[in-house]
Design a protein that fits this description.
By secondary structure, the protein is mostly beta strands. The chain has one helix and 27 strands.
Length: about 325
């Protein structure tokens, strides 16, 4: 499955998002705020936007990769101190739908309906406010994620402004490539996401989702993702003969939002059988006075599998 979303009439345009507020704090990164891993690394900038105090906001920036077919071997992201994530995704939306350079506010789940988006390259390194993110996993030598010429892409930038002032943000992603003939193993993201829950104010809640893929893969790593209201997350693998726990985090901590426990596997250590179903269970406690829903809270199991050339997605 792929994630499906719809542009609504009230979605802000690029001009709305790029008009600077007179009193906005400038937290846009510059060339001095990141390092290049090699002389031929490729620098991709995120949208240039503003985020108001207290806002939990996601922006989507559309473009087209025009270089030759390549393998992406590293993707390192840098954000200011209020960054939640910077993600590079693929999209089947044409340039007629979203011309290159278009920026929209895609915070709400209905803001990208009729546009197919899917994880394309998961970060292999990350920095927020100059601090390295824990739990980010690089790819082994000879392994890469496929990116084709004319691939349309979306950079998704998520910020949570816990400060008292509006800030102006522009972050950066740096990619290193391998020529296709140099790639020994193609890898791709596996993502299982539940987006239809609602956690009542002042209450606990849990959801379960099950995803079956009917394909055998080796696993490089697996992890869970929730926000600060999460209390526990567990991923189980179910086959006709047994149920095994892939990971279990019974005491989720707020800091895991940005640096979750990551479960890594050596080559051949963990192979997903073709008859497996994955069951993810997420639990939360909502200590606010409003219902919590996606994307302000999340329930996601994610990993990297190989050999695989396209993303593997289950949207629940």
């Amino acid at each position: 499955m792929i994630l499906l979303y719809t542009l609504v009439a009230c979605t802000p345009t690029s001009d709305d998002l790029l008009t600077p507020a007179d009193d906005a704090v400038d937290l846009r990164l510059t060339d001095a705020d990141y390092t290049l891993p090699s002389a031929d690394a490729d620098v991709w900038w995120s949208p240039d936007v503003e985020v108001a105090p207290g806002a939990d906001q996601v922006f989507c920036y559309f473009g087209t990769y025009t270089g030759p077919d390549v393998g992406v071997k590293t993707l390192t992201t840098w954000q200011n101190q209020y960054g939640h994530h910077l993600v590079l995704m693929g999209t089947t939306a044409s340039e007629l739908d979203y011309p290159d350079g278009t920026v929209i506010d895609c915070t709400e789940t209905g803001s990208l309906d009729m546009t197919s988006v899917e994880p394309m390259v998961l970060p292999t390194g990350g920095f927020v406010g100059g601090e390295s993110l824990a739990g980010v996993v690089g790819l082994p030598d000879g392994m890469a994620v496929k990116m084709d010429q004319d691939q349309r892409w979306v950079i998704q930038a998520h910020y949570i402004n816990t400060g008292s002032e509006t800030f102006h943000a522009k972050d950066v992603a740096v990619l290193e490539y391998l020529e296709p003939e140099a790639v020994e193993t193609w890898a791709a993201p596996l993502a299982m996401s539940h987006g239809s829950f609602s956690i009542p104010p002042g209450e606990t809640a849990s959801v379960t989702m099950e995803c079956a893929f009917e394909h055998e893969w080796s696993v490089l790593y697996m992890l869970g993702h929730m926000h600060e209201w999460g209390t526990a997350i567990k991923l189980e693998q179910i086959t006709p003969s047994e149920t095994t726990v892939v990971f279990d985090v019974p005491d989720w901590a707020p800091e895991y939002r940005d640096a979750p426990p990551t479960f890594r596997y050596a080559e051949g250590e963990y192979v997903i059988p073709a008859d497996a179903t994955f069951r993810t269970t997420c639990s939360w406690f909502n200590d606010t006075d409003e219902p919590l829903e996606f994307p302000h809270e999340m329930c996601v199991s994610v990993g990297m599998v190989y050999p695989q050339t396209t993303p593997v997605i289950c949207d629940y």
